[in-house]
Amino acid sequence: MLDRRDLVRQLLIDRGDLLVVSGLGSATYDVAAAGDHPLNFYLWGAMGGTAMIGLGLALAQPQRRVAVLTGDGDMLMGIGSLATIGVKQPKNLAIVVLDNAHYGETGMQASHTKAGIDLVAVARACRFREARAIARIEEAAAVRKLLHEGDGPILVSARINEEDVPRVLPLRDGHAIKQRFIAALNGV
Amino acid sequence: MPTGTILHTPNKIEASWPDAIYGHFQRVDVRQVGYVPDAGHSRLIALCQADPNIADVVLTTEEEGVGLVAGAALGGQRAALLMQSSGVGNCINMFSLLRNCGFGCVVLVTMRGELGEFNPWQVPMGAITDDVLRLSGFLTYRIDDADDVDDLVGAGCDMAFDGNLQVAFLLAQRLIGRKQWVR
Asked: Which CATH class is domain A4-185?
């Protein structure tokens, strides 16, 4: 099992111009803990929508790489978006599901993945070019390489441990997060 | 139990109002269009699919399109959504994304459940579509007459994308043609 903070930090090391969308709750805190960055689009709501924001961004910026980092609960709520992404086949989009098999934000109730529902198999069935599960930190470097160079769409389910970690709270003002992101993307 | 073929009023479905909407998509440089397949939008969908400058994104459910609009805007592209009135209800929480961040968005809603609707299951959502959109932060404009589509949708596209506003058009059943159930 992986330590979520350690994993996300390793995935985002030397990130260059990688565009990052983080799902509400712990994924947003993990991305913030790895270091605040103007090319982070932090979600604090819109549960289920993270992967689709990644798709819209990937289609709009085909020359850039887009990484969606989110939790199993958010991915399950937006499970149909895996089919939608599979139709469009964006080469520059990768999704990392930080899967602790629980809804951390609401009191650690078990999620569907706890019962063996397999998001990697769903992604494969949705024609993702690469879909794998990881559970060892030694695999982080290979996943980081996928985020930067892999042929998408990619989904990685990272089996993280259930341990509760301190919250690291980034910007919450949606307008500010958006404007900062767009300015950074345009090199303003 | 009624059985038979479902048809749309043929003269209406061949009307040119979808071309007027598509013309505004081109004019304001809409580059992504999300939709759940819909008979009333079939011509507009086909026009978008045939346009190499537009990414047409078929959705499994309408709220996916709200995320698409946000992602497109982050990446510097304008996006529009096409849906049926029933789809508006699927989007309510996701619409908060547009309000929270100020993403400009144009939604074209083909209405069901209006006066004369054959299928009562369409009525509850059709009857509250306008209210739901307004409560969700949209400016809503109803269009009954095909002759109004060009002016109104053009003005709405400008408001949405120049002002980062959320604008929805309710395309009345009178405009799109009522679904005809033929035994």
From this structure: alpha beta
